[in-house]
Write a structure and sequence with these properties.
Blueprint: E1 2-4, E2 8-18, E3 24-34, E4 44-58, E5 61-74, H1 96-99, E6 107-122, E7 127-147, E8 161-188, E9 191-219, E10 234-254, E11 259-276, E12 281-298, E13 304-315, E14 330-341, E15 348-365, E16 373-391, E17 396-411, E18 427-436, E19 444-453, E20 456-457, E21 465-466, E22 469-480, E23 483-490, E24 498-501, E25 508-510, E26 515-522
Antiparallel strand pairs: 1-2, 1-26, 2-3, 3-4, 4-5, 5-6, 6-7, 7-8, 8-9, 9-10, 10-11, 11-12, 12-13, 13-14, 14-15, 15-16, 16-17, 17-18, 18-19, 19-22, 20-21, 22-23, 23-26, 24-25
């Protein structure tokens, strides 16, 4: 049970058991939450049920059945214009009562359910057969009156009007996937080889209607939401179906000298079909793609483990741009070189990695049209990751990380090549320490940490910067005799910052303020 900021109350249950022979085991998880976010009259509600049942008639055969249901009722976050950036403060400042409010018409309601199974049978110690199946369904009812820029409907600049657009999504999505794989283990010259071959089939379908109407204007000098919002006319009315068939092969070799080598290959046959009911047309895109990966590690025996990997990717993008153009697939490649180090006789671990990632047709949020995405020709990310974790003393543990990313748009059709892609910070860092007390207050622990996110660009045109920010978090926990109590605080000093922004004139979204949550739990 937990209680937190904005009068958010959450109750949860996690229980399970098995029969005497342990051939049947089950687990049930339930959760209900009623709450809000920082906006007035907002919702942050969730109900969740999950159940699993494992049947293991022998030590070589097992089947786990999984089912899940979840319902969310949320209030979408909104962008707001920033004084001095999106409008001249001399024209008047927006009152906090307006900035912190939402139109009561807004809502984001989803319901999702899934079921499936994970089956495994070992013919011998060397040969195993696995099958995984999952079917999921989600319905979405989304409507949002959002800030659409300091412009009028005819797109002439306006210094004293806020244009708002009504955006709706009424959608049903389904996903079905079946994966069959065979694993064979064998030995060679003191080493071990694990060969996996498989075939999978998946089907995704998204059927929905999007509405959009930007005819709402709110005067800067007298802002308010005291007006009705009408259901906008359909802007998109389509059904998209993606069917993917695949064959894959992976071989993992473990050598006697501490080295490992993994190589994989996948062949995919993909069909992406979209029926546009407004235009009365159908488009069909077929792709036959081969992707591969190779990687290796080498345990040098002195605590050092260098590694290297190369991987290719191919992702089908469902949907279309604001202009109705179907998304092209995203293709990518990644090279990574790294080193892990664990000093002998210590509980410390260190890691460092260099990476180079290139992707084409990358989806990013449309800076001018909420709920839509745009594609960038080619984006390259090169960088460095550093990590340290472990026990400094018997009572004090620490985890710290730093990431540097040099991101660049290397190819583009809209003149932004050479710029940095939007919302990618060059620097990110975090540190968290946890101290477990002993003696008479054994069971009490205190954790504290910092999160830093560096400056980013709001759009691919690099017309606006989003300032860096650093947040402090705290966690106080007590555990004993089956009881536990925890007090968690995020953004402890209630720092004001912008989580993200759009191009100049289209505003920013404020980051979360201080959030406090008290959680009580009991283990039986």
């Amino acid at each position: 049970m937990s209680y937190g900021s904005h009068d958010t109350v959450e109750l949860g249950l996690d229980t399970g058991g098995s029969n005497a022979g342990r051939t049947l085991a089950w687990r049930f998880t339930g959760l209900t939450r009623e709450g809000a976010n920082a906006a007035e009259s907002s919702q942050d509600d969730r109900d969740l049920l999950a159940f699993s049942l494992t049947w293991a008639p022998t030590d070589r055969t097992s089947v786990t059945f999984l089912t899940h249901w979840q319902q969310d009722n949320l209030t979408p976050n909104s962008f707001m214009p920033v004084a001095g950036e999106d409008y001249d403060p001399a024209d008047g400042l927006l009152p906090d009562a307006f900035i912190n409010a939402q139109h009561p018409w807004n809502r984001f309601a989803t319901e999702q359910a899934s079921f499936g199974w994970q089956a495994e049978h070992a013919f011998s110690d060397s040969l195993k057969l696995r099958q995984n199946f999952r079917h999921a369904r989600q319905t979405t009812d989304y409507r949002h009156l959002y800030f659409n820029g300091m412009i009028l409907p005819d797109y002439t600049p306006s210094a004293d009007n806020l244009n708002y657009a009504a955006f709706t999504v009424d959608e049903e999505a389904q996903y079905t996937a079946l994966d069959n794989q065979l694993e064979y283990k064998s030995g060679f010259a003191g080493g071990e080889n694990t060969l996996t071959v498989g075939a999978d089939l998946s089907r995704q379908r998204k059927d929905g209607v999007m509405g959009w109407d930007n005819s709402y204007n709110i005067p800067l000098t007298d802002p308010g939401y005291d007006f009705p919002v009408l259901q906008p006319g359909p802007y998109v009315d389509s059904r998209t179906t993606v069917i993917e068939k695949g064959l894959y092969l992976q071989d993992h070799l473990t050598f006697e000298n501490g080295a490992t080598l993994t190589a994989g290959l996948r062949r995919s046959w993909i069909e992406n079909k979209t029926a546009d009911r407004l235009a009365g047309s159908t488009s069909l895109q077929k792709d036959n793609v081969t992707t591969g990966m190779v990687g290796g590690t080498w345990d040098l025996g002195n605590g050092f483990v260098p590694y290297a990997s190369y991987a290719e990717s191919f992702t089908v993008n469902i949907g279309s741009t604001f202009a109705g153009e179907q998304f092209a697939p995203t293709e990518g490649s990644q090279v990574e070189l790294g080193l892990r180090y664990m000093p002998e006789g210590s509980a410390l671990q260190f890691g460092a990695a260099l990476f180079d990632i290139t992707k084409t047709n990358v989806l990013t949020a449309d800076p001018l049209n909420a709920g839509f995405s745009v594609q960038t020709g080619e984006v390259r990310h090169r960088g460095l990751e550093l990590e340290a974790r472990g026990q400094l003393t018997e009572q004090l543990s620490l985890i710290a990380g730093y990431t540097f990313i040099d991101a660049e748009i290397t190819a583009s059709n809209d003149g932004v090549a050479g710029n940095s892609p939007s919302l990618v910070p060059q620097h990110q860092a975090s540190i968290w320490a946890d101290y477990a007390f002993g003696g008479r207050i054994e069971g009490l622990s205190l954790g504290a940490g910092l999160r830093y996110v560096g400056q980013t660009w709001a759009d691919n045109a690099n017309s606006r910067k989003v300032d860096a920010y650093m947040l402090a978090d705290l966690n106080l926990r007590y555990e004993g005799d089956g009881y536990a109590a925890a007090l968690g605080v995020t953004n402890m000093f209630d720092e004001d910052y912008y989580a993200t922004c759009s191009a100049v004139g289209w505003g920013c979204a404020a980051g979360e303020g201080r959030e406090v949550t008290l959680t009580l739990s009991r283990k039986f």
